[in-house]
Design brief:
772 residues, alpha+beta, 14% strand, globular, disordered C terminus
């Protein structure tokens, strides 16, 4: 209401104080169910507990209010249910009996005929706490119907659920909010479920002359009432300041020391700065950071990087996305040190972006909100687990470093990405590479992890045993989370015996569809020794020939490798696959009994990205020319592979782009490496959207192993839908309420317009279920 007045009568309204509200909302009804858990199940000081209508909680305004609201949600009207009458003595059926009028005091709002009630029936009196809350609810309900019954509640909920201050006004929500220029104080409650904290931050971000006062309370929507003394002081300070000055600095903060609680470290000592700002990385923070690092070794001072030259390498990854320089970089040397660093960031509300080898392609390790980059490259633990085919590995250990460590033991780590990523980075994004068919994905090869949570606590995701059935599978939660839920510092990984026999082959086909069909047949045949099955299309082969001086026929080609300890078994599988290739019109088959003879070709396959950078320059006679390369990454069911690959290749060629296709074809995962000039980027991104939409339509995924970062955030919505994305966002808020861990990755902190539209389509477009 305050925003409506501020937008409608700017000359009449001089200041706004907005407490636990928002300018628009699409989650209100959904939040009610959480309030049953969140507001009523408060801590012991407020007599919280499981909601039970037979024994409702009696302590705390939030508990009483929610008990009343949930009761009013009953199918029958609450007055009829409890045999109550209004101020005139009329019951829910319209029968009037003045002798049974239960009104105990004059109505607070006589124009509405509403009064609070008492109930003489001892049994029913215990089922509902009759407090001033009831009058409040009836007053609100009388705006819509004569009684506050279940139908009225639905209508009230719908009104709140669909409120948008921009409705009926020209311009978007952001435009209308930016037009409200009065001094504004936004009071946000971190645990508010009815009006989530991220919507308070959204208001601060869009109101041009606003500031935030944050209450870090566990008591939900009504937390401001429990902290009313401190809030009153803050409001008085805000109004007094307005009386003495006519201008304010956008985003300036009022200090919330009244809410500090030394006995509870989870309370704010300083309010959250308005988004998109977080806590300042100033000289004081850097000094505190260096103090933490010096605790662990004398060289700790030098593991905190602050100069522009030192920070420059951390501004981007290997992808095409914009660069952003961090405020500070730190290189911890242990889990304990990492925990102290993260705890400091938690207390100061400084964003933490974890970085491995920087080989990502979707901007996942780029610090777009500034803050601190935590470089894991010094987390180099490598040790065998005695008696088990397991190794404990630091998150910063590179794939090739781990392989060198394991080789003397006769073992290997199965996943084999083309780059040389860190093991922690592979776990964070799902990077798996060329040997997934035999050894599985990187996620399937991580037995357990040590994780530092956003508040600086250290947990082990699970015991390092093959079977575990003790609670939630936290391993699965943190794998693929891209550092948005915590920092992986150590991993216990599964190992395999290193094979003694290697042989390989190259198979050429007339078209991509024929090659893909051969792979589908081979996967169905379950060839036990088949390790790698990689596809390069005709342009990929030409790129390899041009850049790496190979002499392969310019045609779609499969690169195959068979491994094991029995040469006859490996060669038998090759013969079986050769027959499948012939059935699918293979034009040429070359077998190498010694797998090492194909190592140069595998190196060329790994070099596809670098080759694509130079491809057009070499063809133009300019070998020094390097271009940007976009690397696509989708995964489809193997049964849909042939159609999807051939249609995708045709799209790029029709659009005039060279399409260097390198595919982990046996997994249904393929990459299109597209060199492009800056002026071609918009056209390329539009085409990439089409490719991803097709993969999703075929039942596939928008990303097979590169992760989401910022590059595929909208595609996550396309793949999973708005409610799935909302579930992920709620997990993020639950584990990282201060939103400091790699913010702005995987999904937006607040629902996007596209997500809101998708929700409306789902909720209004023909469904028969209750809106609640």
């Amino acid at each position: 209401l305050a925003l409506e007045w501020g937008a409608s009568y700017p000359s009449f309204v001089s200041e706004l104080c907005l407490i636990a509200g928002c300018g628009r909302h699409s989650d209100w009804a959904t939040g009610i169910g959480e309030c049953e858990r969140f507001a009523i199940m408060a801590d012991g000081r407020w007599n919280g507990g499981e909601y039970d209508a037979r024994d409702p909680p009696l302590g705390g305004l939030a508990a009483a209010r929610m008990t009343a609201m949930l009761t009013y949600r009953s199918p029958a009207g609450a007055d009829e249910k409890f045999g109550r009458r209004d101020a005139s003595g009329t019951d829910a059926k319209g029968t009037r009996d003045a002798t049974k009028n239960q009104a105990t005091k004059p109505p607070a709002h006589p124009e509405l005929g509403v009064a609070s009630h008492s109930n003489e029936n001892a049994t029913t009196a215990k089922s509902l706490p009759f407090t001033a809350v009831e009058s409040y609810l009836q007053y609100q309900g009388r705006k819509f119907t004569r009684r506050f019954d279940a139908n009225c509640y639905v209508q009230l909920t719908y009104t709140l659920d669909s409120h948008d201050v921009s409705r009926g006004r020209e311009g978007s929500y952001e435009d209308v909010m930016r037009g409200i220029t009065q001094r504004s104080m936004v009071v946000g409650i971190t645990s508010d479920v009815l009006y989530p904290f991220h919507l308070q931050r959204e208001m601060v971000r869009t109101l041009p002359n606003s500031r935030m006062f944050a209450i870090d309370s566990v008591h939900g929507h009504d937390g401001f009432l429990l902290e009313i003394d401190g809030l009153n002081k803050a409001v008085r300070a805000f109004r007094d300041e307005g009386a003495t000055t006519t201008t304010t600095t956008t985003g300036e903060n009022l200090r919330g020391n009244a809410f500090a609680d030394d006995a509870n470290p989870d309370y704010d000592r300083d309010p959250l700065p308005p988004a998109p700002s977080y806590g300042a990385v100033n000289d004081g923070f850097v000094a505190a950071l260096r103090s933490v690092c010096v605790e662990f070794d004398r060289d700790g001072f030098n593991r905190v990087l602050t100069s522009a030259a030192e920070k420059k390498p951390y501004a981007g990854d290997m992808g095409h996305h914009p660069r952003a320089t961090p405020d500070v970089v730190v290189l911890p040397s242990s889990t304990a040190e990492t925990a102290k660093i993260v705890r400091l960031c938690y207390e100061r509300r400084v964003p933490v972006v974890t970085r491995g080898a920087g080989t990502g392609l979707e901007g996942g390790c780029v610090p777009y909100d500034g803050g601190l980059v935590l470089d894991t490259s010094l987390l180099k633990t490598t040790r065998m687990v005695p008696g088990e085919q397991l190794a404990v590995v630091g998150a910063g250990v590179l794939k090739n470093e781990l392989d060198a460590f394991l080789k003397p033991h006769g073992l290997l780590f199965g996943p084999d990405p083309s780059s040389n990523p860190s093991i922690g980075g592979m776990a964070s994004t799902g990077g798996s590479g060329m040997s997934t068919l035999k050894y599985g994905t990187s996620k399937e090869n991580v037995r357990s992890m040590t994780v530092v949570t956003p508040s600086g606590r250290v947990i082990q995701t699970r015991r390092a045993v093959r079977k575990s059935s003790t609670g939630y599978e936290l391993n699965a939660l943190y794998l693929g989370a891209e550092g948005t839920l915590g920092v992986i510092t150590e991993l216990t990984v599964r190992l395999f015996p290193r094979p003694t026999v290697r042989c390989g082959a190259v198979a050429t086909f007339p078209d991509v569809a024929s090659a893909a069909k051969t792979v589908v047949d081979a996967v169905g045949a379950n060839l036990q020794t088949l390790l790698r099955c990689e596809l390069m299309n005709d342009e990929g082969i030409e790129c390899t020939n041009v850049v790496f001086k190979t002499t392969l026929a310019r045609a779609p080609t499969l690169f195959l490798e068979f491994v094991g300890n029995d040469r006859e078994a490996a060669e038998k599988d090759w013969r079986a696959m050769a027959e499948m290739a012939k059935k699918n019109h293979a034009t040429k088959l070359d077998f190498a009994a010694d797998g090492e003879a194909l190592d140069e070709l595998w190196d060329a396959r790994r070099g596809c990205y670098l080759g694509a950078m130079r491809y057009r320059g070499i063809k133009e006679g300019n070998p020094k020319k390097k271009e940007h390369v976009y690397v696509g990454d989708v995964c489809v069911p193997t049964s849909k592979l042939a159609a999807c690959v051939s249609e995708t290749e045709a799209d790029f060629k029709a659009a005039g782009f060279p399409c260097v296709m390198c595919a982990h074809i046996s997994d249904g995962n393929f990459h299109c490496l597209i060199p492009y000039a800056p002026e071609e980027e918009a056209k390329l991104m539009k085409l990439n959207d089409k490719v991803i939409a097709r993969a999703i339509a075929y039942g596939g995924a928008a990303s097979g192993e590169h992760g989401v970062g910022i590059g595929k955030m909208k595609h996550v919505l396309w793949e999973h839908g708005p409610f799935h994305v909302d579930a992920q966002r709620r997990i993020k808020r639950a584990l990282d309420p201060r939103m400091i861990m790699n913010p702005g990755k995987i999904f937006a902190a607040e629902p996007t317009e596209e997500e809101r539209a998708a929700r409306r389509r789902h909720m209004v477009g023909g469904g028969t279920g209750s809106k609640l």
